[in-house]
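Let's practice the habit of predicting before peeking. Look at the sequence and jot down your guess about where helices and strands might fall. Then scroll down.
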Amino acid sequence: MTTFVEGRYRVFGETLDIALGNLLDTFAREVGLGPPYVREGMHVVDLCAEGGEFISGIPYVVKGQDVSFSGILTAAVRLARSGARLRDVCYTLREVAFSSVTEVTERCLAHTGKRDVLLTGGVAANRLLTSKLESMARLHGGRFMAVPPQYAGDNGAMIALTGLLALLSGVTVEPERAYINQRWRLDEVDVPWYGRLL
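Done guessing? Here is the structure:
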């Protein structure tokens, strides 16, 4: 969860380990559901979860304003390998993970006074997650938006748009001075184009 203050995004909550999309994809791979991870426009964990029931054994991990998914992944894989019904494990994994994200997003709205929620990345294509976040935002008189599903999994499109916005705002880098830092945090980058339309 981020908010925008003094020219930068501010991280108000984050995952302490793996990303939500990584949780779903890794679990699917570990239990033999994927790859591919998306079929018929749905993640394979969602497809498997249809008709599932909530079972115990998967921890709900919210630490302050942060979430943690690695323990959820370990517990879910262990349950699946120990003979629990896979559809029940998928259902519980999904509900626990999505509910924790919804909880910390709701708390973010309460603490910041913001009313808009924007979901990006591959998980923005997930209908259940978007439904949970949209209901929560509406409950608080807010507005929910998600990137269109056809762009949700395409980081190239997101990077290209960021590059275009930077260029239009006068932010350029000579190619020989450009570098990649995969540990670069979102809250370390000035965002002079915030609020501008193309």
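How did you do? The first helix runs from residue 20 to 30.
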